[in-house]
Amino acid sequence: MKQSLRLGVAGLGTVGSAVVRMVARRADALAAAGGRDVRITAVSSRDKGRDRGLDLTGVTWFDDPVALAASPDIDCVVELIGGSEGPARATVEAAIAAGKHVVTANKALLAKHGAALAAAAEAKGVSLAYEASVAGGIPVIKTLREGLAGNAVSRVYGIMNGTCNYILSRMEREGLTFEACLKDAQALGYAEADPTFDVEGFDTAHKLAILTSLAFGVEIDAEGVSVEGISAIQPLDLTMAEELGYRIKLLGVAQVAAGGIEQRVHPTMVPKSSAIAQVMGVTNAVTIDADAVGELTLIGPGAGGEATASAVVSDITDLAAGVQRPTFGRPSTALSPSQRVAMQRHEGGYYIRLTVHDRPGVAAGVATRMAERDISIESILQRRSESAASKDPHGRSGQPVPLVLITYAATEGSIRAALDAIAADGLLAEAPQLIRIERE
Amino acid sequence: MKQSLRLGVAGLGTVGSAVVRMVARRADALAAAGGRDVRITAVSSRDKGRDRGLDLTGVTWFDDPVALAASPDIDCVVELIGGSEGPARATVEAAIAAGKHVVTANKALLAKHGAALAAAAEAKGVSLAYEASVAGGIPVIKTLREGLAGNAVSRVYGIMNGTCNYILSRMEREGLTFEACLKDAQALGYAEADPTFDVEGFDTAHKLAILTSLAFGVEIDAEGVSVEGISAIQPLDLTMAEELGYRIKLLGVAQVAAGGIEQRVHPTMVPKSSAIAQVMGVTNAVTIDADAVGELTLIGPGAGGEATASAVVSDITDLAAGVQRPTFGRPSTALSPSQRVAMQRHEGGYYIRLTVHDRPGVAAGVATRMAERDISIESILQRRSESAASKDPHGRSGQPVPLVLITYAATEGSIRAALDAIAADGLLAEAPQLIRIERE
């Protein structure tokens, strides 16, 4: 048998500890799969004194992960520190500079510095592997990079943030507000004390940028993702979605469009009958549309120590087996430059919830403004406020009431222009709610 | 760049032709992904004169695929002839003997001769790759072999035959009989003139045996699969399933059980809310339960020239990139012997549809026989025939009526014994229908 693959694990939080345990527990299986023993020879973490319940006998401890990365007794650095800068970035850069393979779960690092790191890894002839960075335990990186080599991908989209999906699932099932569900998610440990990164869509944007690069062979461009979170979603939107045959999910979507690749993260109406609509709670799902396979959907755990460690160990086993593939599926020099497509040019169906004054002619006024911009309306739902105290002879209260429109495919630019005109007409009592529809 | 990977394609049917076209169409992408050019240098098929619309300029034609396999101008033989014996087997054996890699879509060949072929490939240091053999375009082989190396798998199950799923989906949606749907499936080309291999579950059994070997690290044992097809499913079963919150799918299931691995193919009740229940028509789906990732589900096309070619080309690209993994995830000598578990010992919930004489005391008689064997009943549904001409004062017709039971977990042996006792009591007007329930 070949020489052992010697691992240095930088970061012993939930995922790092799970990796250490998994490598020990599955030692025989990993050796059989990779053709050589896999051993952890060094670790690094902030607090040496903390009891993590790990057997670290014979393992060298480094206080400084950068020193670990440079150690001659390591073949591969497993970076599980997190963050796009600071020690995580320094550790990965040092590892590559020292000619060591890198396995990481760090989506922020890849989203921001992936292009430079991939080029550096190539120059040194080492691997930069990151299965765990997107959708936790779902092997979506491997699927896109290796499983679909014969395909031209036209769209990749998915639920890639468990926090948001948990919140939206509970809002839907229990009719609760965003704020109430967020509080519960925080209490359960599904959301951070500062939830902005998750609920405003930035986490999903990082993951999407990675998938975009792999799926379309373009340079990673996280800055080019249009991002909108779920904090403005109201219980009424979920009720309306239900009535109209949809569910609301925070999706990341990358698709081929005129002039480039559209990259967008936003709350999305998906048909209730679609596979992705069934995905509830903290589960993740990714769907890939490609010319040869048609539609492929992968559903599984998006987070958690064990599930994430599963992806890390998959990368480690590939390295043990001598597998080296270009970081983003092809050499850095073969990646096309990112060509952004402005959201104004996005074309799709829209759910528009207006809060209008309950007066004669309002619906007609709205419809006219839409028609002026060639926006076709598929359905209109109007709700009268039944509790309103005074009503005119037609049952109108004069109070603000919701008016919901579903449009056929239209450009975002024309929708926005129509809404501006409707607002200028003085028909709106509140700012409009706009949710994009994604068809299968 | 390294030397080209030279392919010999044996078999130019739907899949073979799609592979030839895909390798040409994706030449640049495959070279970028695999680090070397991929070229088809030889082909073989039965009818040289037939126009397949392929550009075979500069490609050597072999009338005999075994001669192709031995050609010195080929690095990898792509076997797309099909069948567990005859030219397919001879071609694969000749290719391995000549030290060439093999990529195949041939599930029957692997199910029957996989162990011997894997050992031969190992001895020669070549790869035997077969992503296309199970679930068409879904990368389930790669996922089990590489993506879940850190996991102990406890169960793998799925819808792996599009013909059966198409028939069951139509029976459910349109209330049609098995026979009527089969006829339509044949007219649409989804079913063969002799549909036995598909509808009686043997095709699923071959695929399941391959997944079992990979998932559990055991020697492939297709003979050890308990097989039951869908031809006895009646429209009434689908109606009852709907009422009880289930759908009926033909599943292949392999799971860890006391004393070994249970391998079974049978019509199965799955909860309507499960991801696998949403899979309709010719689509396939595979779910993997494993200790680290929990549950992972892959959904996609199970057949079709392009989707199958996608899987073949994925294997080809792996070879171009120099990836070589043991055939069944670990060396042949490291596979455990198959330990069969008798279906009598299977434990699970059951749907039992009895056709009983509509007389006093029948339900009580049935329940007593169940209770004697410690079988707990979750629900009972009884339907009176409303059109029966003569009824006694209690509304009983004396005519045969359906009596449906859902049991809690029980062993198949005890269920069978109870049904034998019920039959011996003379309560049954027809043989009972028994459908196993698979919980998430």
TrEMBL record, chains A, B:
Secretion signal span: none
EC class of the enzyme, as a word: oxidoreductase
Residues that coordinate or bind L-homoserine: E192
EC code: 1.1.1.3
Domain ACT: 351-440
Ligand binding (NADP(+)): A10, G11, L12, G13, T14, V15, G16, S17
Pathway: Amino-acid biosynthesis; L-methionine biosynthesis via de novo pathway; L-homoserine from L-aspartate: step 3/3; Amino-acid biosynthesis; L-threonine biosynthesis; L-threonine from L-aspartate: step 3/5
GO molecular-function terms, A-Z: homoserine dehydrogenase activity; NADP binding
UniProt binding sites for NADPH: K107
Keyword field contains Oxidoreductase: yes
Active-site residue numbers: K207 (proton donor)
Keywords, alphabetical: Amino-acid biosynthesis, Methionine biosynthesis, NADP, Oxidoreductase, Threonine biosynthesis
One GO term of the biological process aspect: methionine biosynthetic process
Assigned protein family: Belongs to the homoserine dehydrogenase family.
Name of the protein in question: Homoserine dehydrogenase
